[in-house]
Amino acid sequence: SSYRIASIPGDGIGVDVQAEARKVLDRAAKRFGFTLEWTEFDWSCERYAETGRMMPEDGIEQLSGFDQILLGAVGFPGVPDHVSLWGLLIPVRRAFSQYVNLRPVRLLPGTTSVLKDRTADELEMVIVRENSEGEYSELGGRQNRGLPGEFALQESVFTRVGVERIIRYAFELAQTRTGRVVSATKSNGIIHTMPFWDEIFAEVAADFPTVHSEQCHIDALAARMVQQPERIDVVVASNLFGDILSDLAAAVTGGLGMAPSGNINPEREHPSMFEAVHGSAPDIAGKGIANPVAQILAGTMMLEHLGEAEAARAVYAAVEQVLAMGEVATPDLGGKATTAELGDAIADSVEA
Ligand code: NAI
Ligand code: MG
């Protein structure tokens, strides 16, 4: 079979890691007898600087015919971050109803956690982030600019449908893993939306008697992630809280260079979009030293979503094998290899 994939490398190291992910995925496709038909889009901050838009006006329409989207990263100094977020990422996530942002983390062989005495099993978890509503909202505004009474107001939107479907997804996922799910809210301080989330969480929990469920304040859960990560498996959280917890989860496992992410439309009515958790890393952009593993693992999530589970496992195993040998490692992993050298080593291992 053949799949049509939209490739959006974006900015900074997004471009470097995307090239390696494509290389590795193509090698897996060849080995397992399918093809990935890539179409490249130059949608980026560079394009914004030239045209005033991150993507063309009919960008969503252009993407709608693809099976999946693989995105590098967008954002670059000189273009405000809200432009790249609201000009590309959020419109794609919302237009294609990619309401699940799935961010699995695992300590991979040959890497060390900042939590030194922890085993890989203790550090394995997945953040299920609500990806379509919540705190990331355009509702609000600013008043009295420059006056003593200046203020800013920002609204959050939590719908019953939106909250219930993400929580249900997390419970279903927990059933396929260790059977534990924890929800992160802050209902003592945020007294309308968060208690609403908690209520729906309790309702859904009643439908899953075999799943161990727990509600936790986000501050306490953040501390637990560092002090008792073995007590955490599936975490479900709102758009903002899930965003924060997934960077923390990545940091306590292998670091940002290792954490993949999927913006998923579970009903498969629209393309899903896969990317690394990390951004465009302007501090190391153009140096050819970015770690491509997060992007390659995002590629394994894409293969799985396409139904190519065997190929996904082979790529994952290749990443593990190369990291375990430790000979080819980028600077963030303590080595001297370039992005392309690590990508090549993984690609060769996929074929072996
Ligand atoms: P970042 O994730 O780009 O970088 C944070 C730190 O981690 C930097 O020191 C960077 O060098 C390091 N790092 C990240 N990925 C790495 C990799 N693959 N290998 C080695 N080191 C790596 O986050 P930052 O600096 O806050 O944001 C930079 C830009 O990226 C901003 O414009 C931001 O808006 C954008 N961004 C875009 C995202 C996306 O496209 N989904 C997600 C997060 C940030
Ligand atoms: Mg983030």
Give a structural overview.
Helices cover 41% and strands 19% of the residues. By secondary structure, the protein is α/β, with parallel strands linked by helices. It folds into 2 domains: 1-99 and 257-352, Isopropylmalate Dehydrogenase, CATH 3.40.718.10; 113-253, Isopropylmalate Dehydrogenase (3-Layer(aba) Sandwich), CATH 3.40.718.10. Helix 5 crosses helix 6 (193-206) and helix 7 (218-227) runs parallel beside helix 8. The mean pLDDT is 95. The strands form 2 sheets. It has a 10-stranded mixed sheet, sandwiched between helices. The chain has a two-stranded antiparallel sheet with strand order 6-7. The longest helix is centred in the N-terminal third of the chain and has 20 residues, at 13-32. It has 11 helices and 12 strands. Bound molecules: 1,4-dihydronicotinamide adenine dinucleotide and magnesium ion. Residues 243, 247 line the site of magnesium ion.
